Amino acid sequence: RGLARARAGLVFMLGLPGSAYLYQGQELGLEEVLDLPAESRQDPAFRRTHGAEGFRDGCRVPIPWTRDGASFGFSPSGASWLPMPAHWGDVSVEAQTGDPGSTLELTRRLLRLRRAEPALGDGDHGGTQHAIRDHVARLIDLDHCAVRHVGARHLGDRLVSFTRLEAGFVL
To answer: Lowest CB count within 10 Å: 102, 109, 111, 112, which one?
Structure first.
């Protein structure tokens, strides 16, 4: 369920006009690592507060590049500053490359579509309707945003959400 939500969030974010930012591992659908052993933690706030604060390490685990190896291709020596979950070989760049159902290939398709549609970058957004082909996000105009689940085999074409965007509204 978390991966499905993350993928929907990617489609929605990359379907909106303006700047878009992908953070480390988002293109692979990597989850935050919440079970890092205290002795491997690197966050200065974690050390300074004896574990009461400083939980940023879970989103700083290196990206897995290959299916195998101690650091899944991150380092030729196999070393990593933080331990990587054992299952991350299955979601590595190597594992997802060429798999049309993977989060990495979805991200690549969305970025290609985004580059092909000038209004999604810094082009004219005024009053036009933009869609990323048969995916989720659709901008009606700069005042209204509708999220329509289109093209999915199990849901069909169905309105999921419609809202008027108020001044200062942040998605």
So the answer is: 112
